[in-house]
Specification:
Length: 621
């Protein structure tokens, strides 16, 4: 096997050109078999195999640098830099990350995980290189989906001023996670499908090269930035910005890409290399259903179907169902997402009410201010975004929504620990960054029934509301506990004495197990469903502080700025006698791994919580 000869970076340069196609096939086969077991980002990686090979053939790593936008497509890069063995434990706790990580390899020059950042990071590396009078090549790889994010254009605008080489590879597969939307998608599609341009360009090029002075004329045209593409594609967006544009080039043709990369390396400016690829290439199920194989669970290779079919609804499903029902009752309800109609559960709403559904692309900042405008215009916007992505729009939430006290609902999916995607995707900061904003109201449901009730409450409420819920199977216990949602009011689940567990959202289920363990140890125990993180139920907390010796707050959020800190501040203000124990995630980044393993590692699993409570009770005497 050719792949077995790749043991470290730059080994690919020893592979004969006639073996490149074989190596690409072997890499695809390797990825399909490994990811079918571990899960991971398959479609984007299958589409970027030849592109990555061409980059590695053109560059000398780690001296030269590649910045991968998001990093979903970096698996082939990891293989070619000697990390093939790491795929046995891909995205598992203590194993290899699914994203570029500087601590993993010198060939990973920048940690990534969120979208539209690679051009900014690459430009920073370019300027650092220039200031230090060093000589190496820097390439930022960005997908067409990431070009729907505004940060990419801020960086492009800045990069247009460069007088030194900087290569930006536009990996264009017409997809982000779901199919791309918006003007840039339409623009790139026009370039992709302009066969007349490609035919004329090739014809003129061939005719010139056949003439005696052909090559000097072609080079003169390139240097003057008046290449034949200007004759047939009006505007040339990138060139008009001051960037050199090369392409489009077939992203599965390595020799063609090597030629373009050689030309790109000669440019004394920022240059866009437009590469056309197919997401999921080489695996029929991924080609047919690219969105499904963006982030795949372990699957059967023959059918492409998950090895463990979903049997119960998750919180996203519940949100989806309730949104559709509410949309039928109220025509003022509109739904907004940032390139994730499938992931956030809004696909059904889009199908039922297409005029009231808006996918703004990977542009969370725009999504929030757009929602504020809709609210100011009399609509009832629901913005559905993952927790770790919503933090990108902090200023817009504060400035455009909350200062005006506009009725925008934030449906925050994937709140808390999410697992295999690691530090950049854990939703463990939302309670902290949202609760710092005046006029914001924050709720967290204990089960799927309460999610339904809270969404109805949030849409009817006249002000900003954030409703945060976790990834995974929706808890369906405690159905009998369904008191009406009242602003700032918590809910008693069990009333006891001695110890009060005040749990937020997903931690209510954990509190039930903790209570059972404490009862077995001879301690009476209350459980309170906090419901609201902001405002907290001060009246109930005050009452509990006089009837219980120990109050234990439980949340799936970092300690700093979280629910426990708010309870502590209130208890201090009333000089409460009860002792407080705050159970939360330490103020640190949490790596990738199985959620249950991570919960134990950070100390929010039932056994660890029970042990901490028993030690605290013992210390109290």
């Amino acid at each position: 096997m050719v792949l077995e000869t790749i043991e470290q970076e730059n080994d690919i340069k020893k592979v004969a050109p006639e073996q490149w196609t074989v190596l690409a096939e072997e890499i695809r086969d390797f990825l399909i078999h490994k990811i079918s077991v571990t899960g991971g980002h398959l479609g984007s990686n299958l589409g970027a195999v030849e592109l990555t090979m061409a980059l590695h053939l053109s560059l000398m790593l780690p001296k030269d640098k590649i910045v991968w936008d998001v990093g979903h497509q970096s698996y082939t890069h990891k293989i070619l830099t000697g990390r093939k063995a790491g795929f046995e434990n891909l995205r598992k706790y203590g194993g290899m990350s699914g994203f570029p990580k500087r601590k993993e390899s010198d060939c990973d020059c920048f940690d990534t995980g969120h979208s539209s950042t690679s051009i900014s990071a690459g430009l920073g590396l370019v300027e650092a290189r220039n200031l230090r009078n060093e000589d190496y090549t820097i390439v930022s790889v960005i997908g067409d989906g990431s070009l729907t994010g505004g940060m990419a254009y801020e960086a492009l605008n800045n990069a247009a001023q460069l007088k030194k080489n900087f290569i930006i590879v536009l990996n264009d597969n017409n997809m982000s996670i779901s199919e791309n939307v918006g003007g840039m998608s339409k623009y790139l599609n026009n370039i992709r499908t302009t066969e007349r341009y490609l035919d004329i360009k090739e014809g003129i090029y061939n005719s010139l090269m056949e003439s005696r002075l052909g090559e000097p004329i072609v080079e003169s045209i390139r240097r003057a930035k008046s290449s034949v593409k200007h004759l047939v594609i009006p505007g040339m967006f990138f060139e008009d910005m001051g960037l050199t544009y090369l392409g489009p080039v077939d992203g599965h043709n390595i020799p063609d890409m090597l030629k373009v990369f050689r030309e790109a390396k000669r440019c004394k400016s920022a240059v866009i290399v437009h590469v056309l690829t197919q997401k999921g290439k080489g695996f029929a199920p991924a080609e047919k259903h690219p969105a499904r194989f963006h982030g795949a669970e372990p699957f059967d290779i023959e059918t492409g179907l998950p090895l463990t079919p979903k049997t119960k609804s998750n919180y996203t499903d519940v949100f989806s169902t309730v949104m559709c029902k509410l949309g039928d009752r109220d025509e003022n309800i509109v739904a907004i997402t940032a390139a994730m109609p499938d992931g956030t559960g809004l696909k059904r709403f889009r199908n039922m009410y297409p005029d009231r559904f808006f996918d703004v692309g990977i542009a969370e900042e725009h999504a929030v201010t757009f929602a504020a405008g809709l609210a100011a215009g009399g609509m009832k916007p629901v913005v559905a975004i993952y927790s770790s992505f919503l933090q990108r729009a902090y200023d817009q939430i504060l400035h455009d929504v909350c200062i005006q006290n506009l009725p925008v609902v934030f449906a925050i999916d994937r709140a808390g620990l999410v697992g295999s995607d690691g530090e950049t995707h854990q939703g463990i900061f939302d309670l902290s960054y949202l609760s710092s904003i005046p006029n914001m109201h924050i709720l967290a449901p204990k089960n799927k029934w309460e999610l339904s009730d809270m969404l109805k409450f949030a849409i009817a409420f006249q002000g900003p509301v954030a409703l945060r819920y976790p990834r995974g199977e929706a808890y369906d216990g405690l159905r009998e506990c369904r008191e009406p949602i009242v602003l700032g009011k918590a809910e008693w689940i069990y009333q006891g004495e001695q110890i009060a567990l005040v749990a937020v959202g997903s931690m209510v289920k954990t509190a039930l197990t903790v209570r059972e363990q404490l009862i077995c140890k001879g301690y009476d125990c209350s459980i309170i469903n906090a419901r609201f993180v902001k405002p907290i139920d001060a009246e109930l907390i005050g009452a509990v502080s006089t009837s219980h010796k120990l109050i234990v707050t439980m949340e799936e959020n970092v300690a700093s700025g979280g629910f426990g800190e708010k309870v502590r501040a209130y208890l201090d203000s009333i000089h409460a006698q009860a002792k407080l124990l705050c159970i939360s995630i330490p103020d640190e980044y949490v790596e990738h791994g199985n959620v249950e393993i991570l919960r134990k590692e950070v100390g929010i699993d039932a056994d660890t919580i029970t042990d901490r409570i028993l030690r605290t009770v013992t210390d109290c005497g």
